[in-house]
Recover the amino acids of this structure.
């Protein structure tokens, strides 16, 4: 601790420092284009055409999709029949099985219980499922399976599609007996990603045992109804017959109806039945967690817990041979979150997503937190693949509407330090006497070299005509550009975590015209 700060503490001014800390202003990212929603609306006919053609090409009996922007469902589209035998057309009340899209809702229920202090994500599952107490892992040094392992597909269970889909109606007793008799592992717990329906079925059983209610009752009361999802169900028997989508297979040019499955304990991994409008409310709630803000909490769980759900905790795979929204080669890193995937491409575009597939159904949703938009799509065909159409729709929407992500306004301290730094350039005269640099700065950067670099750069670009606003990376880091007659000087700087943040790092880059 420096002597100056020590004197502050001895003088009893700690309370003043605390006030300063709590008074720091958070600058929230904003959209700069006031016409963005109107531009999105112009894309509706082309998007509808894309989804319509895809449904025809893939032989979907019906397709339904919705587009959410800035917290609202702003467009939906329905084509085809949800019941071929009764000639029932898809519409805004049509209820589809969404299969594994259910997983994030189950994960949300787990986080709600965590936030209420009723469990820890690092609790061993045997704490809530006694039958798992003597479970033997693949290796002797395997750790006990925790709730977090289940949420992130890291328990060591084998990938279980399509086996898991046929277990949807299993009872609690059946799952307890499965644990009692032992589980076959494919990997050692905590070492690899492997998709597991069993893991999420187990989370449903844990919810049952903690709450004394079925997971269906708990999730309905604590998540679905608070979000206004009043046309969402767990069992097809509860859905009005004229709203229930029947699932089909397409074989030899004919559609064959598939048996509908009841939701037992495995329904926690894939049993939910919902509409485009209802799921859009859930999607919008996920988007509402971005950007972090100071607004009052109004959702069924905290916004910070939603962001925790969307964070990539377990690396899944690297998608090669992919392209970005402009068609340029661009890999995608895929990580599993809690009941969700996080896609991060080579340009930094971040997408949160999950698909769903059951005999008779296929679905997927995607949100772009930095753009405030999301799309959800359902079809009533067995394992209807939705990845290609959603990729195409998202890329097209970004291009057609010329959408840009939120921009972070420069914080007051970033702007202040920029102005102070500009005054020192290019001579750096009395820089060491100024109070804008952290105590490490002149140990890591040498005044004579800084001066020479700056004077050389200024000589090459000529007279400085203007200085740009700070392009903020975050609240304490950013760049700005000094525009000269013959070129530009780009400056990057980063600040310390002190109460009065000071410049701790600096880079200067010359761009000739």
């Amino acid at each position: 601790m420096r002597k100056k700060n020590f004197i502050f503490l001895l003088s009893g001014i700690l309370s003043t420092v605390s006030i300063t800390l709590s008074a720091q202003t958070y600058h929230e990212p904003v959209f700069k284009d006031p016409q963005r929603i109107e531009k999105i609306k112009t894309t509706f006919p082309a998007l509808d055409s894309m989804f319509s053609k895809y449904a025809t090409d893939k032989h979907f009996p019906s397709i339904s999709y919705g587009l959410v922007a800035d917290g609202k469902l702003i467009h939906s589209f329905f084509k085809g029949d949800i019941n071929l035998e009764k000639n029932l057309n898809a519409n805004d009340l049509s209820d589809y099985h969404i299969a594994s899209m259910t997983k994030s809702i189950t994960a949300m229920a787990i986080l709600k219980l965590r936030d209420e202090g009723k469990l820890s994500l690092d609790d061993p599952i045997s704490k809530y499922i006694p039958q798992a107490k003597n479970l033997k892992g693949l290796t002797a040094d395997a750790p006990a399976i925790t709730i977090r392992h289940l949420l992130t597909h890291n328990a060591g269970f084998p990938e279980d599609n399509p086996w898991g889909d046929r277990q949807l109606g299993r009872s609690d007793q059946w799952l307890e007996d499965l644990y009692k008799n032992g589980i076959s592992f494919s990997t050692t717990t905590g070492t690899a990603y492997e998709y597991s329906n069993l893991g999420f079925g187990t989370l449903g059983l844990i919810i049952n045992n903690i709450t004394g209610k079925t997971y269906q009752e708990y999730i309905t009361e604590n998540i679905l109804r608070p979000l206004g999802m009043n046309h969402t169900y767990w069992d097809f028997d509860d859905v009005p017959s004229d709203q229930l989508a029947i699932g089909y297979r397409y074989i030899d040019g004919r559609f064959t109806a598939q048996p509908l499955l009841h939701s037992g304990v495995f329904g926690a991994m894939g049993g939910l039945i919902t509409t485009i409008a209802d799921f859009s409310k859930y999607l919008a709630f996920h988007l509402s967690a971005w950007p972090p803000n100071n607004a009052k909490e109004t959702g069924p769980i905290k916004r910070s817990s939603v962001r925790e759900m969307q964070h990539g905790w377990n690396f899944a795979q690297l998608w090669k041979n992919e392209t970005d929204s402009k068609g340029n080669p661009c890999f995608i890193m895929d990580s599993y979150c809690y009941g969700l995937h996080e896609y991060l491409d080579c340009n930094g575009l971040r997408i949160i997503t999950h698909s769903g597939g059951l005999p008779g159904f296929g679905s997927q949703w995607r949100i772009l937190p930095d753009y405030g938009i999301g799309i959800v799509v359902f079809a009533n065909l067995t394992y209807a693949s939705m990845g290609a159409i959603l990729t195409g729709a998202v890329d097209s929407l970004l291009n057609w509407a010329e959408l840009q992500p939120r921009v972070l306004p420069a914080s007051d301290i970033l702007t202040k330090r920029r102005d102070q730094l500009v005054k020192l350039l290019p001579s750096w005269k009395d820089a060491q006497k100024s109070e804008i640099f952290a105590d490490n700065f002149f140990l890591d950067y040498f005044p004579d070299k800084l001066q020479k670099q700056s004077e050389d750069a200024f000589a090459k670009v000529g007279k400085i005509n203007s200085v740009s606003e700070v392009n903020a990376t975050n609240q304490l880091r950013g760049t700005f550009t000094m525009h000269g007659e013959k070129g530009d000087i780009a400056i990057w700087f980063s600040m310390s975590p002190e109460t009065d943040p000071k410049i701790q790092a600096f880079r200067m880059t010359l761009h000739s015209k």
Remarks:
- Residues 226 and 464 are 57 Å apart (CA to CA).
